[in-house]
Amino acid sequence: MTSLAPEITTDPSSGSPPPRTVGSRHVGRWVWAAVVVVLVVWALRSVALNPAFGWSTVGQYLFTTAVLRGLGTTLLLTFATTVVGFVLGIGLAAMRLSGNPVLSSVSWGYVWLFRSTPLLVQLLFWYNVGALYPQLSLGIPFGPTFFSVESVNLISVLVAALLGLILHEAAYAAEIVRGGILSVDAGQSEAAVALGMTRARVLRRIVLPQAMRSIIPATGNMVIGTLKGTSIVSVIAVTDLLYSVQTIYNRTYEIIPLLLVATVWYVILTSVLSVGQYYVERYYARGAERTLPPTPLQRLRKVVR
Amino acid sequence: MSLLEIRGLTKAFGTTTVLDGVDLSVDAGSVTVIVGPSGSGKSTLLRCINHLETPDAGTISVDGSLIAYRRDGEVLRELPERTIAAQRRRIGMVFQQFQLFGHMTALANVVEAPIGVLGRSRRDAEERGRALLARVGLDGREDAYPRQLSGGQQQRVAIARALAMDPTLMLFDEPTSALDPALVGEVLAVLRDLAERGTTMVVVTHEIAFAREVADTVVVLRDGRVERVGPPAEVLDDAPVA
């Protein structure tokens, strides 16, 4: 009679170890890696050795006062735009999600208007705001005026640039924040409200911190975009990084090396921002994952040790 | 005198009537279990008590004061948000899906409202928070995030979080329905302990055995109306429910 039990083909008492497995050699992978490495080396070599890139000129201008001052302006514009833009954006998102139909519609209208016109056009508008409103006054709407100034005196090119960038940023920030808030389970708000919290406290303590997890990646994108986007203010003669190198090459005609100076700084700044984003994301991931994976630095330390 | 008094509570979602003139009295220190088929309005009834749902008509009062409304002749006018928030502090609620705050540790979940809403000092709140976590059997898990806890543990933290406000009334909305059968017992044990300590509780559940053992009053809801109400021995033994 045949047994239904599985047949034992190897005798465990014989002591011979089970056969070892060997992974695929991945021949194709090696070939493609070699081809791409050759191409990258060739490209880097040409960039390094082509005298037209003028690397010595790049080094000469990288830390000059004019360039560093331009860099400072670019950083100021990026910082102010991001911070104020997001504060306004949180307000707009809260308006949009509020039960008040007027606030909700105004918020929608704002986002619609500022997203549907190019940033460059908005900047030119603020630059020329003196033509629209020659005088700006502080007072009560339809009521008395406390004081007024000439627009051209108040709105310098830098203020025009800031206004344009911030109001544009706020529209996009509002959508990022709104998306983040909607990603948090409505039950979280109910649980918080049931504990006797007011809606404002629920937003600040319970919803926004959890919304950050989906807000941060989009914001990282946004900040990097803003950093590079500030270069557009050079068209209204704000002495940012790009405008500063343009001023120099208009005098010396060393166009490519000076554009490279700007490029090098932009790359350094975006790299710093990317690293920052990584750590901020980690911070807000607490509680969302059971254990956090080690950072690249921690991994490196483990390898070195 | 009864702690919770519901009179003529009516609520419709669109054209569907969910609650159709519900009357209910809950005595202080008693356990009331609400049972009934799905869609009978059990959860809506519970959620009206702390105004997570807005009723269309009827009154709810806790400890003699109307919840979320003031009487103005023929109508009830809704109170301002802050007043309702203050009333909710006295009513603890435990949800089917726990709803622990995911970005906070177990202890932080428990002390968030006592500190932020009641204005207690962090030291006092944490001391009491630890004691409550110990009472629900979660000694040593104070620093765990909700995702690091099992469903049963999360629900017990949620109960501690509600108790931290020293509520006069505790509402439980199907507290064991989202749990694996093996974890139901540990949550019911906490509920049993609360009942023995004289906590006034209203529990919506499908756990008939629990109702039979712990409830002082069982309410059978069907199609938005109270079908039967009374001690478990009278209500549960003849008619099949659930």
Description:
The complex is a heterodimer of chains A (305) and B (242). With 305 residues, chain A is mainly α. Chain A has a single domain, classed as MetI-like fold (Orthogonal Bundle), CATH 1.10.3720. Helices cover 70% and strands 4% of the residues of chain A. In chain A, α3 packs antiparallel against α4 (101-115), α4 packs across α8 (157-182) and α8 (157-182) packs across α10 (199-229). Chain A is flat, with a radius of gyration of 29 Å. In chain A, 25% of the residues are buried. Helices cover 34% and strands 29% of the residues of chain B. In chain B, the strands form 3 sheets. Chain B has a 6-stranded mixed beta sheet with strand order 8-9-10-3-11-12, with helices on both faces. A 4-stranded antiparallel beta sheet of chain B has the order 2-1-4-5, covered by helices on one side. The longest helix of chain B is centred in the C-terminal third of the chain and has 16 residues, at 181-196. Chain B is globular and about 50 Å long. Chain B starts with a strand and ends in a 6-residue tail after the last helix. At the A-B interface, α9 and α10 of A face α2, β8, α3 and α5 of B.
Largest sheet of chain A: 2 strands, antiparallel
Structural class of chain B: alpha/beta
The helix count of chain B comes to 8
Report the radius of gyration of chain A as a whole number of Å: 29 Å
- Helix content, binned percent of chain A: 55-70%
User: Mean pLDDT score of chain A, rounded?
Assistant: 88
Order of helices and strands of chain B: EEEHEEEEHEHHHEHEHEEH
* Overall helicity of chain B: 25-40%
Order of helices and strands of chain A: HHHHHHEEHHHHHHH
Number of β-strand runs of chain A: 2
Identify the overall geometry of chain B: globular
How large a portion of the residues of chain A is in β-strands, by DSSP E?
under 5%
CATH class of chain A, anyone? Mainly Alpha
Figure out the total of helices of chain A. Answer: 13
Largest sheet of chain B: 6 strands, mixed
Low-confidence stretches of chain B: none
Counting structural domains of chain A, the number is 1
Distance between the termini of chain B: 30 Å
- At the fourth CATH level, what is the homologous superfamily of chain A? MetI-like
Rg estimate of chain B, integer Å:
18 Å
Membrane topology (chain B): Peripheral membrane protein
GO molecular function, one term (chain B): ATP binding
Protein name (chain B): Amino acid ABC transporter ATP-binding protein
Organism (chain B): Actinomycetospora termitidis
